[in-house]
Amino acid sequence: xxxxxxxxxxxxxxxxxxxxxxxxxxxxxxxxxxxxxxxxxxxxxxxxxxxxxxxxxxxxxxxxxxxxxxxxxxxxxxxxxxxxxxxxxxxxxxxxxxxxxxxxxxxxxxxxxxxxxxxxxxxxxxxxxxxxxxxxxxxxx
Length: 141
Known about the structure:
This protein is mainly α. The protein has one domain. It contains 5 helices and no strands. Helix 2 packs across helix 5. It is globular. The termini are far apart.
C-alpha cells in the first residue's frame, strides 16, 4: 500500500512539473536594454509614473504572450493594466510596502523563481523604480 501511495505522489509530481514547464512564460526575444536587461525603460528616482514607466516595463517584460497577459495569465496574474496588477492577486503589490510585495521579492530573486522568467533580470534602476512606485503608494498615475 505504501508503494502504491508513493507511486501516485511521484506521478502527480511529474505531471505538475510537466504542466508547469510546458505552459506559461516562454523565452521572449523582444526589446533589450543597453545593459542586457529585458527592457529599455529608465525610471526616475522618485515620482514614478505608472503610465510612463511601470506599465511600459510590464508591457516589455511581463505582459507578453504566454506570460502575464490574456484570458489565462500565468499564475492568475495579469499585468496588462493597473487594476489587474494591483488587485488580481493580493500581496503581489502591497501599496506603500515594497518589502512585503511579492513582486519585489520575485524581481529581486529572493523567493521562488526570479522574474522575468527565462529572461535576463531587470537592471537595478528598474528594480529600484518598481520599489519606489510601490513605496509611493502604487498609484495609477
